[in-house]
C-alpha cells in the first residue's frame, strides 16, 4: 500500500501538484472522509500547513470540504480529478497556442541544430509533418516509419503531396510509396534505423539511431532554405530513380515507363513553387516581401 501511495504522490507532483498537496490527496483517497487534523496526524505534518494544502486542493477541485462544523474532507475520485486536470490542460494549451501563434518567428536561420535523443527526433518529425503545406518527402527504415504512419496518412489527407521511400514492404494511404531497390541489402548491412524528412523544401531532418538500443548516433535539423532545397531535390531525384528501377524490374512496358517519368517530371516541376525555393529566390534577389 505504501508503494502504491508513493507512486500516486509522484504522479501528482509530475502533474503540477506540490508534494504536500499530493500527500494530502493520497491520504484522503484512502481515508475519506477525514478531518484536516487526522490527515496532519497521518502525515506527521503541521496542521496549519495541511489546512493550507487542503484550501489549494479545494480550489483545484481535488477535495470536497463539508460545510458543517466538523469540516470533514473527502477526496474527489481520482478518475474525476484526472479528467478535470486534462480539461484544464487542454484549455491552457489552446490558449497558449493562440497566443504563441501570434508571435512572429525569426526568419533566415541557416544554422544546423543537433538532436540528441530519439524523442527529440520523433517530436521534430511530427512537428514538421503537421506544418507541411505542399510537399513532404520521407526516407525511412521500418521502425520510425511505423511510428509516423498515421501522421503521414493524415498529412496526405490535408492535400499535402507525401512521398515516402521505404526499405521493406509498406502501404501508406494517400502517399506515393517508393521501394528502395536495395532495401533488403541495406537493412542487413546497417544495424540501425534512419529517418530523413524534408518538408516544403523549407526544413529538413536527418537522423540515424541504433536499432537495438534506440539511441541516436547522429541527428540534425535545419531550417536553412538552401540546404533544404538541395536535400529536397536530391531525395526526390533518388525516389524517381527508385521508381524507374522498380518499374523496369517488374517488366514495365515502354508506355508504362513513360508514365512513370511523366509523373515524376510533374513532381520535379512543382518543386519550383515550394515555400523553401521561393523564399531562397526572394532572398537572393534581395526582396523584402
Quick synopsis:
It contains eleven helices and nine strands. With 289 residues, it is an alpha+beta fold.
How would you characterize the overall build of this protein?
The protein is α+β, with helices and mostly antiparallel strands and 289 residues long. It folds into two domains: 2-98, Winged helix-like DNA-binding domain superfamily/Winged helix DNA-binding domain (Arc Repressor Mutant, subunit A), CATH 1.10.10; 112-285, Endonuclease, Chain A (2-Layer Sandwich). The chain has eleven helices and nine strands.
Throw out a few tags for this protein.
single chain; 289 residues; alpha+beta; Arc Repressor Mutant, subunit A; Endonuclease, Chain A; 2 domains; 7-stranded mixed sheet; two-stranded antiparallel sheet; 17% strand; elongated
Ranges where pLDDT stays below 50 over 5 or more residues in a row are: none
User: How many separate domains make up the residues?
Assistant: 2
Distance between the termini: 64 Å
The CATH superfamily title of the largest domain: Endonuclease Chain A
Largest sheet: 7 strands, mixed
Shape: elongated
What topology emerges from the helices and strands here?
Elements: H1 2-14, H2 19-31, H3 36-43, H4 47-59, E1 63-65, E2 73-75, H5 78-101, E3 112-114, H6 118-131, E4 135-140, H7 142-157, E5 161-166, E6 176-179, H8 183-189, E7 192-199, E8 203-210, E9 216-222, H9 225-249, H10 254-270, H11 275-285
Parallel strand pairs: 4-5, 5-6
Antiparallel strand pairs: 1-2, 3-9, 4-7, 7-8, 8-9
Helix pairs in contact: 1-2, 2-3, 2-4, 3-4, 6-7, 9-10, 9-11
Amino acid at each position: 500500500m505504501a508503494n502504491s501511495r508513493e507512486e500516486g504522490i509522484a504522479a501528482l507532483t509530475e502533474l503540477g501538484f506540490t508534494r504536500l498537496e499530493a500527500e494530502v490527496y493520497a491520504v484522503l483517497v484512502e481515508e475519506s472522509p477525514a478531518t484536516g487534523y487526522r490527515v496532519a496526524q497521518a502525515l506527521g505534518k503541521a496542521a496549519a500547513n495541511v489546512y493550507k494544502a487542503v484550501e489549494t486542493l479545494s480550489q483545484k477541485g481535488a477535495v470536497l470540504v463539508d460545510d458543517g462544523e466538523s469540516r470533514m474532507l473527502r477526496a474527489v475520485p481520482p478518475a474525476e480529478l484526472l479528467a478535470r486536470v486534462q480539461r484544464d490542460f487542454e484549455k491552457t494549451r489552446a490558449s497558449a497556442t493562440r497566443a504563441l501563434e501570434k508571435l512572429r518567428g525569426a526568419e533566415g536561420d541557416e544554422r544546423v541544430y543537433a538532436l540528441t535523443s530519439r524523442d527529440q527526433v520523433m517530436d521534430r518529425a511530427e512537428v514538421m509533418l503537421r506544418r507541411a503545406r505542399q510537399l513532404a518527402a520521407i526516407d525511412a527504415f521500418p521502425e520510425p516509419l511505423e511510428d509516423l504512419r498515421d501522421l503521414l496518412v493524415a498529412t496526405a489527407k490535408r492535400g499535402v503531396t507525401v512521398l515516402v521511400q521505404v526499405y521493406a514492404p509498406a502501404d501508406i494511404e494517400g502517399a506515393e510509396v517508393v521501394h528502395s531497390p536495395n532495401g533488403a541489402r541495406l537493412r542487413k548491412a546497417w544495424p540501425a534505423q534512419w529517418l530523413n524528412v524534408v518538408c516544403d523544401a523549407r526544413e529538413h531532418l536527418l537522423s540515424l539511431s541504433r536499432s537495438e538500443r534506440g539511441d541516436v548516433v547522429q541527428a540534425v535539423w535545419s531550417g536553412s532554405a538552401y540546404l533544404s532545397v538541395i536535400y529536397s531535390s536530391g531525395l526526390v531525384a533518388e525516389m524517381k530513380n527508385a521508381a524507374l528501377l522498380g518499374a523496369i524490374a517488374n517488366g514495365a512496358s515502354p508506355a508504362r515507363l513513360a508514365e512513370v517519368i511523366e509523373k515524376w517530371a510533374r513532381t520535379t516541376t512543382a518543386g519550383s513553387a515550394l515555400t523553401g525555393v521561393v523564399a531562397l529566390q526572394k532572398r537572393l534577389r534581395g526582396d523584402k516581401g
